[in-house]
UniProtKB/TrEMBL annotation:
<feature type="region of interest" description="Disordered">
    <location>
        <begin position="1"/>
        <end position="24"/>
    </location>
</feature>
<protein>
    <submittedName>
        <fullName>Uncharacterized protein</fullName>
    </submittedName>
</protein>
<feature type="compositionally biased region" description="Basic and acidic residues">
    <location>
        <begin position="1"/>
        <end position="11"/>
    </location>
</feature>
Length: 60
């Protein structure tokens, strides 16, 4: 039998994900008050950043 020419794939276990604890309402309000632009607000809420051809767009 011929040997395989392709290298053997080694499956590595997935890295453990950090579990976020649920934020309290007071923490969310504090983070929203400290947010300076729409992308920071989106990050607090859990949305992807807002982008466009001319930079971030304000949509909130």
């Amino acid at each position: 039998m011929a040997k395989e020419t392709s290298p053997r794939k080694i499956d590595s276990p997935p890295s453990p994900r950090r579990v976020k604890r649920p934020a309290t309402t007071d923490e969310l309000v504090e983070r929203l008050l400290n947010a300076r632009n729409s992308n920071e607000i989106a990050a607090v809420i859990g949305l992807p950043p807002i982008t466009g051809l001319s930079g971030p767009k304000v949509a909130y």
